[in-house]
Amino acid sequence: MGLIDGLHTPLNATGIYIRTLIPDGPAASDGRLRIGDRILAVNGTSLIGADYQSAVDLIRLGGGRLRFLVAKSDPDISEKISASSC
Asked: Coiled coil where (predicted)?
């Protein structure tokens, strides 16, 4: 799963967003996460106001089973996240 800071997208908004899903990876295989979804928390730890590196570290150190709280995106947001060159 690839993440991006919303400030580095055409959204120009704070937040950590899903930019890519690796085919056959755990997140893609699960089917509930989509490109453009905003990750609000990982394993109960809020990402509101967190920077990109803190979010990545939290996910990497989160263990074999992660729980995400996400805000689902609409197609417009997904398109803007996908089009980002960062």
From this structure: none
Give the domain range for residue 47: 2-84
Question: Can you give the pTM of this predicted structure?
Answer: 0.86
CATH number at residue 35: 2.30.42.10
Angstrom distance (rounded) from CA 74 to CA 79:
9
CB 34 within 8 A of CB 18: yes
Q: pLDDT by residue (tens digit) across 4-55?
A: 999 888 888 889 999 999 999 888 999 999 999 999 999 999 999 999 999 9
For residue range 16-28, list pLDDT tens digits in order. Answer: 999 999 999 888 9
